[in-house]
Amino acid sequence: MNTQDKTKEELIQELEILQQKYESLKTELKKEPEIIENEKTILEKLINASEEFIQFTDYKPDYEKILQNILDISGATYASFNIFDENGIDYTTNAIAGIKENIKKGLAILGFDVIDKKWRNDTQRAEKIKNQTITEFDHLHDLTADTIPKSIIQIIEKTFNIGKVFIAKIVKNDKVIGDFTLLFNTGETLKNNKFIELYAHQLGMFLDRNKVTNSLRLSEARHIKMIANIGDVIVIINQDGTNRYKSPSIEKWFGWNQEELIGKSTFENVHPEDLANAQKFVIELMGKLNATGTTECRYRCKDGSYKWIEITLVNLLHDSDIKGVLGNYHDISGRKQTETMLKLSEAKSLALLHAMPDMIFIQNEDGVYLDFYLPPNTLRCIPPKVFIGQKMENVLPRKIIEDFVPIFKNAIASKKMQFYEYPLLMPDEKHYFEARIMAYDDNKILSLIRDVTWQKKAENSLKVSEERFHAIYDASFGGIAIHDKGFIMDCNHGLSEITGYTFDELIGMDGLLLIAPDWRDFIMDKIVSDYDKAYEAEGVRKDGSIYPLQIRGKNITYQNRTVRATEFRDTSWRKHAENALKESEQHYRTIVENTNDAIYIHDFDGNIIDVNDNVCKMLGYEKSELIGGNLADFGSAQNALDMPARIEMLKIKGRLRFEATDIHKNGSQITVDVSSTVVSHGGRQLIQSFVRDITDRKNAELLIKQQVEELKELNSTKDKFFSIISHDLRSPFSNLLGMSELLLTNYQNYEDEKRLKFISALYETSKQSFTLLENLLEWSRMQRGKFDFNPELINLTNLIIFEIQNQENISKAKNIEINLLSTDEKMIFADMNMLKTILRNLIGNAIKFTQTGGKILIYTIENNGFIEIAISDNGVGISPESIQKLFKFETDYSTAGTANEKGTGLGLVLCKEFIEKHGGEISAVSEVGKGSEFKFTLPLKIVNNDN
């Protein structure tokens, strides 16, 4: 069941409720049953007639049906239905009703058919009905004296037994739209004026809605079909986001032709930074029928460049002609050069809501609600049951009551229908309502309330649509003419500007007069053949001057007939541009050869067609060696791998910028910045690349980056250095002072064994402090460049044995066994002091992190001019995350030994710097609980190393 059918069914149900309520009123009113029954029957007819207004789906009302309704409600024998023109003076008879045979006789007497006949309003008739909704006349000739002779009217009155005549005006907002002429037989009269007034007002609402709907429909149809012929890009987007239509002007503004975009995603060419906003905008708009909106984004041209565009879209998915989202792209790149951001939003509504039955309220003269009727889906602020038994001031807003009460009282006093329009804030938005109030009987008031919000919106939509149509029509960059068989029916101001004729002079002119005489036959052939592509011709202005012209025409439906819309474009500027282009070609070679950049022209396979002298200077080749070769022959291996993908991107975007590495003829590498563009050259699509040597800039950037990293490391090192001095060096001295003081103070009281224990502790602490201080001094000299690097021939084996023996006291204290696998003499070139420091720290660390009774293994391996020294232990090991912190000063990594020996982490950092000073490397592998192995390499022969 569709919405319309559902409404009808619910109306019938509500009608049954009304019938029951009218039965219950019989006793209360104490009227004769036949009178009550008659009024109930008329009310039923009134509600049925109101329902019929909803059922009208055509744009031309069923006048005969309307007239039959008025006969049923009024009881008249004959009736006519007249509609007034906009001037409110002339009117046309649209229908007559009554006994058909009698009507035929009456028309024969008059001698003509009155249907669709236009009449001048009788002055006497107009004056008599001026201040009344329903006017009573005793005779038919009282209202036709100015139009039909009295003698003829008297014959008609006698022949058809016509007595009283009533004129019921159809009024909307104090404007007379039309009227009914009701003719009664002699002795009969109108029983209840109020029902006729009510029906006439309902009809006025319907006719007014019908007029707005027709105007809006015609405006929208004209707008959609005319917009295809203007200069901006017009688009239609399907519900799935693909392009169904792009106007031909897309090629002018963005380089794409229609075939390249139809069927593709409408977001395909939106700039990545604007994509999310554009998608959100379209998706939200698609969710609301008739919704209109404007946004901005960057749109990619075929050559790869982007232009700022303003997009205006309207959701017409429900429209039988469009069935999509209609919009236009307007290039705002020029405006964007001076404005950083401009957001335009436009909230437009083109909604037309179908008419719905009125809400009906019955009140007594004190304003108490007695009964009500609400159509389905009516918006409500208060539940309907709350109204019953309440005075209106208890349920309606105070502001409405202040305006409404005087109107309510006037309806009671005057016995005439009163009108009141008011706004009311509903849960969704502010709504507007129109109330019609009339005395129903001696002590009852009938109020009919209609939601006219849709009408307000429709009127605004019509105004906006008309303004938008004329704005786009007149904003076209060319002249547009709509002509029928050559004669101009309508045009925009652009045509006036091009031709020199005024707008009024152009309307009605033969369009061929705007064409140079030698071209008129050619133009006629195009019109006759319905040719709709752009073509060149010559135009003639009002002053007789001839100018080059581009014309494009297309057949369209305009004002219910097929006509031709033609766009005129003055191409004088283009002719000048073509001449300027020829001149620029002569200067091209001079500019190319004198630019600072190297320029290549090559095909899509990378074959070089031409180069300028700067290419030869940059690569060291002659032109003859470059032309005919391939780009892959003069670049790095990576360039050759990347080139196919870059070519494909150029085919898609038309423009690409990237960095690459070229190879000089002498073999050196050159870092270059390349800007490539697809160009038309000699009838072929080629690639022109501007290449700039940025090797020096890249080296400078690399140096700066390196210096920044070094500076960070130096700052971190400085912080660590101060930390060691303030904490790790200070702490041992505090222990020395404390133990020394205890020993000095209690020397006589301590036994020899305890004195020896204090002296041993003082010795160990002093030794550790000395080692730390020695490391600090060596590292400090290293950082300040004061550490001399004096490599000499050294017996590595003897030096390792010396360091093992030097730390023998510590290893024996923990019962740790240290083994050197090979005692063969190994001779290397190294700095003696640095090597001692390296071995001292690595062997000391192995002892420090090996448990009592553990083992340490030292071995050496020669490999490719280097000797590798490994120091392995079966101690506590190091976790994987801690391995990453070794050899880095800034991480502040240090742990206590198995005998709670203190450390700073400085030793490993110092080892790394000394080893790298020799040109070697250091590494560590470890597993928690299984020990660690530190390896470092030193060259067997030291070469000069300034680092």
* Unreliable stretches: 1-8, 25-36, 341-356
Oligomer: single chain
Number of strands: 34
What count of helical segments does DSSP give? 29
Mean pLDDT: 78
Q: What shape does the CA trace take?
A: elongated
Beta-strand content: 25-35%
From the N-terminal CA to the C-terminal CA, the straight-line distance is 90 Å
**Largest sheet, strands/sense/barrel:** 6 strands, antiparallel
Provide the helix percentage: 40-55%
Backbone CA Rg: 50 Å
By secondary-structure content and strand pairing, the structural class works out as alpha+beta
Task: Give the strand order of the largest sheet, numbering strands 1, 2, ... along the chain.
Answer: 3-2-1-6-5-4
A few lines on this structure:
By secondary structure, the chain is of the alpha+beta class.
Account of the 3D structure:
With 947 residues, the chain is of the alpha+beta class. It is built from 29 helices and 34 strands. The strands form seven sheets. A six-stranded antiparallel beta sheet has the order 3-2-1-6-5-4. A six-stranded antiparallel beta sheet has the order 8-7-11-10-9-12.
Question: Layout of helices and strands, plus pairs?
Answer:
Layout: H1 3-29, H2 33-55, H3 63-74, E1 78-84, E2 90-97, H4 100-110, E3 118-120, H5 123-128, E4 134-137, H6 150-159, E5 162-172, E6 175-185, H7 193-227, E7 233-237, E8 243-246, H8 249-254, H9 258-261, H10 272-286, E9 291-300, E10 306-316, E11 324-331, H11 333-338, E12 348-349, E13 359-364, E14 369-373, H12 392-395, H13 398-414, E15 418-425, E16 430-441, E17 444-451, H14 453-475, E18 479-484, E19 487-491, H15 493-499, H16 503-506, H17 520-528, E20 535-540, E21 546-558, E22 561-570, H18 572-594, E23 598-602, E24 608-611, H19 613-619, H20 623-626, H21 637-653, E25 655-663, E26 669-681, E27 684-693, H22 695-728, H23 730-745, H24 752-783, E28 791-795, H25 796-806, H26 808-813, E29 817-820, E30 827-831, H27 832-848, E31 855-863, E32 866-873, H28 880-883, H29 906-917, E33 922-927, E34 931-939
Parallel strand pairs: 29-31
Antiparallel strand pairs: 1-2, 1-6, 2-3, 4-5, 5-6, 7-8, 7-11, 9-10, 9-12, 10-11, 13-14, 13-17, 15-16, 16-17, 18-19, 18-22, 20-21, 21-22, 23-24, 23-27, 25-26, 26-27, 28-30, 31-32, 32-34, 33-34
